[in-house]
Amino acid sequence: MGSALETLCGQAYGAKQLHMLGVYMQRSWVILNVMCIVLLPIYIFATPILKFFGQKEDIAELAGKFSLYMIPQLFAYGLNFPLQKFLQAQSKVMAMAWVSGIALLFHIFLSWLLIVQFKLGLPGAAASLNISWWIVVLGQFAYVVMGYCPGAWTGFSWSAFRDLGAFARLSIASAIMLCLEFWYLMFLIVLAGRLKNAEVAVAAISICTNLSGWEFMIFLGFNAAISVRISNELGAGRPRAAKFSILVVVMSSALVGIVFMALVLALRKVYALPFTNSRDVADIVSDLAVIFSFTLLLNSVQPVLTGVAVGAGWQWLVAYVNVGCYYIVGLPLGFLLGSKLNMGVKGVWIGMVSGMGLQTLILTGITLGTNWNKEAMMAKSRITKWGGSVEPQWETQNGNSSKKRDVVV
């Protein structure tokens, strides 16, 4: 839900409406903390919920106890993600990296101290996680209030409680869009568990999803970069610059994806071995090399297109696309090929890649067919509606800029 700020803060920053960034962040804090309260019953009643879904009693009891310990982290999430997007929109990336690095070092030390030295077990692990996440939150907030974001943070404001309904709708759209993507990979494990020789199938799918996830973390950086750039350029009224940014980032990420694709094909016989001692699992993963390498190539482009969508504010549109591609095409096809046609893990993965490929094609078509001048006008309208008005620096047909005037209401 915090990713809604990628659209709003980025466009406001591009339009030089810096004062609205802090207001947007506070609105997101209100909405996300209300959502944390809504989610609390899942944490509090985790044990009976898990038992209802058939989890073993000892695991359900332990997981339920741990979930109670982790409630402070839930509220840290509610504050952290808006802070991240607030800083990200201003390209304060190194500040975020320093805070996260310090928190990580502290987390490692605290985990060793509480779990290994004091032998506190799960309570120690929970305390380490909670404290580390709150260090991230407090560190980022300290950076903001100490004056390193001039103009963007002007203190707490009652304006944070205005337009919460429209803000919540965009936040929910962002959440749906992203959750549908992440849950898609989780459902693959469920499908694998229904195959013959399920333990081997789950192990093979898990190795591939882990490797894919590691690569995906790299392209999350491209996702954030293009999201910020698109929102900044649209907010500033520079549609031509937005289109050029898309071209540069897509080409750059695709080149990196081709490198990963080539690595998997070159190491197809051995790339599973660091993850398993089972020859059967390694053979299945090796057999997936060609289609898995294609997955890595798609992983390089798809996050960029999603970032474009977030920067432009297309969250609801992409949510619908994800439902169709992933849950109407990808998962049913994976189930049909894997279970009914006895193609096993390869069938499940082919279904998954088909959904991802279809989504990438549709998002590519949407991006190519977009009227970016119209998107820039919509960004201006959104900024005016939610806090101010601005006459941005519009581009003329020959690429020259007209005089820029800022009018803050």
TrEMBL record:
Keywords, sorted A to Z: Membrane, Transmembrane, Transmembrane helix
Subcellular location: Membrane
Domain of life, source organism: Eukaryota
Region feature Disordered, mapped onto this chain: 390-409
Topology term for the membrane: Multi-pass membrane protein
Pfam families: MatE (PF01554)
Residue ranges crossing the lipid bilayer per the database entry: 29-54, 66-83, 95-115, 127-146, 166-193, 200-226, 246-267, 288-310, 316-336, 348-368
Keyword Transmembrane helix annotated: yes
InterPro entries named in the record: MATE_euk, MATE_fam
GO CC field: membrane
UniProt GO molecular function: antiporter activity; xenobiotic transmembrane transporter activity
Main localization category: membrane
Family note: Belongs to the multi antimicrobial extrusion (MATE) (TC 2.A.66.1) family.
Protein name per the record: Multi antimicrobial extrusion protein
Source species taxonomy: Eukaryota, Viridiplantae, Streptophyta, Embryophyta, Tracheophyta
